[in-house]
Design a protein that fits this description.
This protein has 208 residues and is α/β, with parallel strands linked by helices. The chain has two domains: 3-49, no CATH class; 63-207, Thiol Ester Dehydrase, Chain A (Roll). Helices cover 25% and strands 27% of the residues. The protein has helices at 26-33, 38-49, 63-68, 96-113, 194-202, and strands at 3-4, 23-24, 77-82, 125-135, 144-154, 158-167, 170-182, 206-207. The strands form two sheets. Strands 3, 4, 5, 6, 7 and 8 form a six-stranded mixed beta sheet that branches. The longest helix is centred in the middle third of the chain and has 18 residues, at 96-113. It is globular. It starts with a strand and ends with a strand.
Length: 208
């Protein structure tokens, strides 16, 4: 068993990467729980200065959590995560394609939360008709970020989704996509559910 000592890995204050077999030794675990120990003090100080210390990753956030991470008002659905090595390009920046994967990972739970579709029997086919992004600043390995999304306008069987990626309150990438809902024949348009329309209007979306 590999023992982990905090002095060797000072940057891993937010937890362990499950891809690597690193686990804290029993002594380190005991020290981290004992008030007055150097590890306990470091842990408390880290949590006090790191806004991500108590934020769950890849989990829908509350409005209060998003606001605490610098996300501006007007966004109602988002998730936090951290840039990983495999998402980088040869220039050590986040690859352009990675942002679209992040948006997709956010879009699917958004569909369920807003009653668009859970991809169950009887649900509509959901078609991504258009998709584009605008990149403002590069991101790097280890960056903590929040992806957010919302519907900004909708019609009977389609709606426009807006996305953003924020790091410390700064917009790094923005995106927009057109979503269309169809019957299972893949041709006939299906109207948005009443619950979906109500939720979109509640969040400030414009009905066209």
């Amino acid at each position: 068993m590999v023992k982990w000592y905090h002095a060797s890995f000072p940057s891993l204050r937010c937890g362990f990467d499950s891809r690597y077999p690193l686990q804290p030794s029993r002594k380190v675990e005991e020290d981290a729980r004992r008030p007055g120990s150097s590890i306990f003090v470091e842990k408390i100080m880290s949590e006090a200065t790191d806004p991500f210390a108590h934020i769950p990753l890849v989990t829908p956030l509350t409005a209060e959590q998003m606001h605490s991470l610098g996300v501006p008002e007007g966004w109602h659905f988002g998730m936090a995560d951290r840039v990983r090595f495999h998402e980088l390009d040869p220039l050590n920046h986040v690859n352009n394609v990675a942002y679209f994967r992040w948006f997709e990972s956010l879009r699917i739970p958004f569909f369920g939360h807003y009653h668009v579709s859970t991809y169950s029997e009887g649900d509509p086919q959901v078609v991504l008709a258009t998709n584009y992004a605008r990149y403002f600043k590069p991101m790097h390995q280890g960056d903590n970020y929040v992806t957010v999304t919302r519907c900004n306008s909708f019609r009977r069987s389609s709606f426009m989704m807006e996305y953003g990626v924020y790091v410390e309150g700064e917009l790094m990438c923005g995106s927009e996509s057109l979503i269309v809902t169809l019957e299972q024949d893949g041709v006939t348009k299906r109207a948005l559910r009443d619950e979906t329309v109500t939720a979109f209007l509640r969040d400030g979306a414009k009905q066209e």
